[in-house]
């Protein structure tokens, strides 16, 4: 799942080296924390959060195979 998030985010940002994805695995859910360079936060979130919502939709759909709920937090 980290590779999928990385693949989606890299073309959007100007500083792909500063992308940090951490995974927190809990009994009923998996939480991914995405951190990007401060200059790229607006590009990842998008106008009115549209890009962030689209990224979350793709990640949630990819996580449907597992029995756990998938969450993506953008820091």
Automatic annotation (TrEMBL):
Keywords: Cell shape, Cell wall biogenesis/degradation, Chaperone, Cytoplasm, RNA-binding
Protein name: RNA-binding protein KhpA
Taxonomy, superkingdom: Bacteria
Main location: cytoplasm
The family this protein is said to belong to: Belongs to the KhpA RNA-binding protein family.
Record keyword Nucleus present: no
Keyword Phosphoprotein: no
GO biological process per UniProt: cell wall organization; peptidoglycan biosynthetic process; regulation of cell shape
Compartmental location: Cytoplasm
GO terms for cellular component: cytoplasm
Function: A probable RNA chaperone. Forms a complex with KhpB which binds to cellular RNA and controls its expression. Plays a role in peptidoglycan (PG) homeostasis and cell length regulation.
GO molecular function: RNA binding
Subunit and interaction comment: Forms a complex with KhpB.
């Amino acid at each position: 799942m980290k590779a999928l998030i990385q693949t989606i985010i890299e073309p959007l940002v100007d500083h792909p080296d500063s992308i940090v994805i951490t995974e927190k695995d809990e009994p009923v859910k998996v939480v991914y924390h995405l951190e990007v360079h401060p200059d790229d936060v607006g590009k990842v979130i998008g106008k009115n959060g549209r890009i962030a919502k689209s990224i979350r939709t793709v990640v949630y759909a990819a996580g449907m195979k597992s029995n756990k709920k998938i969450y993506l937090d953008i820091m």
